[in-house]
User: Fold these one by one.
Assistant:
Number 1:
Amino acid sequence: MSKRILLVSAALVAMLTASPLRADTLSEALAAAYANNPTLNAQRAATRAVDEEVPQALSGYRPSINAFANLGASNSRGFEQRSASAGITITQPIFSGFRTVNGTKAAEASVKASRESLRNTEQNTLLDAVEAYMNVVRDGAILSLLRENVSFLEEQVRASRDRFQVGEGTRTDVAQSEARLASASADVSAALANLESSRGVYIQVIGRAPKNLKPAKAVDKLLPRSLDAAIGASRTDHPAILAAVYNADTASFNVKIIEGELLPSVSLEATAQRDWEDGFQASTGNSAQVFGRLSIPIYEGGQVYSRVRQAKETLGQRKIEIDSARDQVQAALVGAWSGLESARSQSVAARSQVEAARLALEGVVEEQRVGQRTTLDVLNAQAEVISARITQVQAERDQVVASYSVLASIGRLSSQSLGLQVATYKPEAHYQQVRDKWIGLRTPDGR
């Protein structure tokens, strides 16, 4: 007896000290997607590439330095002469028709547009992660419900067979129960396939396999109280609109850059040179010169004028795209807001439906025991319960996803607003590292 007590005590200690199975929360999944999603990381790299347009534009203020060397030989009337020279030339731009100024402003506007595009990609990635997470939760819950249904129907098949054996039921009751069981088993197989598909998308978006996902809640506290307030916030915060505005700024500066090609340009050029000669009239000497260069364009065949007109048409296009972006954002926001309200209503209705269906099933089962209901009545009542519970699961999933969709449609779905435990990517850091670099082939991270 004492040995048995010791074994039981050891089992209890093991149960108490064992670590619980790790469960992922939605916040943890979003943090993983924010850090690891390849699409998001690719957009970050694209933003860093756009940062380099600013030092390229600033190079118009800086001098250019070139070294040169010449080596030659000649023969005239039997006299051979060899010569060589080497030197260095420094050219400093003084005035370039304001092209450097406007080029720098255009590059900075492109950087801002790229940052907004990155922020939009971050929003889309986080929203995809929410959908992937909730789809796994939904499909896992539906699979559990359908397996419970199979267990219930297996018991109904057994009970109908027993009643048939004692003469209290009919072969029809048995056949109906078996048919429902076969259909339920097929539903389980389909639900399992759906779950595996959702798990695959989860891994693709978030970067790791789902483990014991916990149910999530909607982010209603982060949303405006009315649709009008949400629309107003989206017009000032949504990255798609802001990116369109900055793209229009870039196009405006591009017009000025091309127009600058029609203006005079001034530069200062200095050359230092050493010459070597031998043979006839051999001589060696050094020379240096400094001179200013003024270039005034007169006519270049009409190409620049055409490019100016083309740039103005592009500017008009970019301005129209601002209005288009506002319309698209508003349409998406209205749709997401309507979807959220619908999901809330469906969730409330589904809970009531589930409770009513359960009570109805309990009543039908009791009435069957006293002969007032048939097996088919029980099977139909059970089907209504399963259908109602699946509707509830879907509505709860839709409510969570719709709330995040509204947050994204406003332009406020970010790691900071969600309070994710992950290092926030700051594109400004790379911009400051490369903006004033005069030389160097390595990127700030050492590549």
Note: The two ends are 70 Å apart (CA to CA).
Number 2:
Amino acid sequence: MGGESFTAPAENLQNALWTLGGVPREHRTDSLSAAYRNLNAEAAADVTHRYEAFCAHFGMIASRNNPGEAHENGSVEAHNNHLKTALDQA
């Protein structure tokens, strides 16, 4: 994924889920276009399938916001900020 393999973010997300002791119903991301920029079509499809399989393994629905809709990033980033705040307070 453009200098970072699929394994690195998958391991980090897995560790976060284990630390939290649960999983959300939905794992929402931005469109991840930067991650696919340097991949050919076959490699991009492989990453997509691996991400979907990863989410299915944990029972999460994989979703993403729409490319070019910058206002949708706020919903993804807001949840991340809420989580960080809750962890800091704990």
Note: The helical segments are 7-20, 33-36, 41-57, 73-89.
Number 3:
Amino acid sequence: MKQRILILGGGFGGLYAALEMEKGLARDPEVEITLVNRDNFFLFTPMLHEVAASDLDPADIVNPIRKLLRCVRFFNGTVKKIDLQGQRVLVSHGEENHQHELAYDHLVFALGSVPNFFNLPGVEERALTMKSLGDAVALRSRLIEHLEEADFECCPATRELLLTVVVAGAGFAGVETLAAVNDFLREAVRFYPNLREEMIRVVLVEYAPAILPELDGSLGSYAAKKMAQRGIELRLKTAVASMSDRGVELTDGTVIRTSTLIWTAGTAPNPLLATLDCPKEKGRLVAEATMEVPGLPGVWALGDCAAIRDPRSGKFYPPTAQHALRQGKVLARNLSAAIRGGAKRPFVFSTMGQLAAIGRRTGVANIFGVNFSGFIAWWLWRTIYLSKLPRLEKKIRVALGWTLDLLFTKDLVQLNMSHAGKLPPIAQPRQQSAA
């Protein structure tokens, strides 16, 4: 019988584990490898904010999984249930949610994370997130829709609601999203004759006393200064308490009148992990340095859903893309050693650097302990992430998109999929009375 390997999730961890298996293990006729993912593409999440701000087209930052994998089988579906005792996974696919049972000998958890709204009233129902391609497209459409509506809005209070954007969370995702949105709105407003730049209000809310806490304090201060110069309000040492029709209420009692809250203030492991009876750390599966889950032979975990301890510091590795990518490669080699025989090696990795784009061709970066800021940090951001983007075709498309962005203004086309296939109603002529 073939050794059946099942990889759940096609993010950085799952995909790069599969890509590493493509080099050897997947070519073995006695091994069958299947990757299960809800989308049929790999999303390059570091560039999501560029889609939201019309710097790139949505298709530029996604790669079809079937073009990336030739030997590994791909199942486009959603994981519904995991039976660790029976070594089976229930998945569904298609419009009618047709269900399949996939058996395995080795199971790899790479399910990633989901937004964590901390049960704050109204936030989950009303806030926008930045985790998926659909999120970025929806945000872009919302911004353009509000500009169009505000241009002919007579009521100042309603116009304020439309032209105010709040971002919760001042980590990398929040700062990059906020900076991109601010640039987009302030560049676009000149095409709306009834609007002025002074009407645009963009607010960053952060519970910590500084933004970008992952970076050196001087870089965070530089980023805060630059963003303030560009009209961005920083509300530090406070947090979002709730959201309602009135707007966003903060923990200090302030109410910001807005209908657009972008939530980047927290993530949680995939809810499916809560159904598993095994050790966890804040919802993540506790895994050994080899990424095996103790007490469950043949079960592996990596990325956002795994808690792997750094043997040097004793702390758990952070759930970042650069860690998940390298964990995927090490896991694939260890899994090959488990099947074919050989020594497994522990995952040991130090963060090489961290970068953030803060708008208007400026950025902040720390590479191998050296700080950069301004234009050179922005150039490093684009150069490094472009090199990490899979497939030459996508690299060329993104490089071309960035070049055109230097020459032309941002696109203001609103992509409203709710109108697809529908015709607007036509007013019928009023019938004359017989009398």
Note: Residues 3-38+77-115+268-340 form a domain with the FAD/NAD(P)-binding domain fold (CATH 3.50.50.60).
Number 4:
Amino acid sequence: MAFESLTEKLTNIFRQLRSKGRLTEKDVKDAMKEVKMALLEADVNFKVVKQFTKDVTEAAIGADVMNGLNPAQMVIKIVNEKMIALMGSEMTEIRVKPNGMTVIMMAGLQGAGKTTTAAKLAGKFKSKGKRPLLVACDVYRPAAIKQLEVNAKKVDVPFFSLGNKLSPVDIAKAGVVHAKENGNNLVLIDTAGRLQIDESMMQELVDIKNAINVDQTILVVDAMTGQEAVNVAKTFTEKVGIDGVILTKCDGDTRGGAALSIRAVTGQPILYVGMGEKLSDLEQFYPDRMAGRILGMGDVMSLIEKAQAEFDQQRTEEMAEKIKKASFDFNDYLDSMAQMNKMGGLESILSMLPGMSTKMKDIQGMIDEKQMKRTEAIILSMTPKERANPDILNLPRKRRIAKGAGVDISEVNKLVKQFDQARKMMKQMPGMMGGRGGMGSLGGMMGGMRGGRRRPF
């Protein structure tokens, strides 16, 4: 998971601080030395780390923290506040004109995820009422035009291309004309990337900006490249001029350096972060929420927003009522799994809960994705009547289901037994479903998952 190693190290440092009770100036300075090493190992820019730890140390010592009732907690609070400030303090949105056409140019190195991100953005703005057009100006990379076309269809957004014979500047100009003629008020231009920065690449971007009056230039960088992502952002800022950055691949084992360094080094805000391969996996960047994730405090607000966006409110309330009465069935289970997968899966959900990020290694051992797939196969091998009435599952039916799912009958028996136990447990714990909307249902699902790696609920 993103920032896992850094989070673990910072959590251990803070745990040691809490164990001391009263703190001396030396305790704070020693802790900041460890924080400094953790940030450097996370590939955060050296100058940024030096200034950050200096600011935290001065604030902690200068605020009479040591004489407070809970000095360790005050130090952690200062670290959190300084980290939020380091990443920009407030969320920054891509500026889109309320009236008329907005032109956005996507830039970045090859492999950063620029083409996919352009489609993700188009889908985001379409859901907000805009009428976007995706314009294919990458005439060099094989299959780039086709990739953008395929992704445009997935988000149901119009696509414009003139092939790879004309220059990117001419295609961009024609794309803007096409948008005006067809009522599109947002143009997203996918430009070519290179394996490394070169003069011709930069000049091409400058030429496009000059030819069509680009309103926003968005740089897409791969978070997994760490400090190199910051260097790329700095060069693009100086050579082309950018209005913001989108960090991709933040769901991987990234060290976190780019997220903590880009704003301080370039002066440009991080706008979004890519948290997965699906076209819906693009999250608004909130400095306070990201600081919470890095410091192991979770990101409950993002989790709630995901639930509100993906969950069917009426269906969730119906399911909550069923679970309270212990009358849910295997159809409800499949619905729960579908909703959870829309939110990125159980692992992604748990990582956003306070205190869970440092336990993800243990949690990953509990979550057996293959077993969950087999469980789904077992349920899908049932008839509609059997899914709706689990109590009718006798031995002949179980044998047929096992054969259809390609599993041993013992797995079917185990699933049915655990399903019965889950129903009993839910009946005894109605408070588990007390939350409103999707979050109540989600709590119920996760509560059952904690009991062991093979429980379906």
Note: Strands lie at 102-107, 132-136, 159-160, 186-190, 216-222, 244-248, 270-274, 282-284.
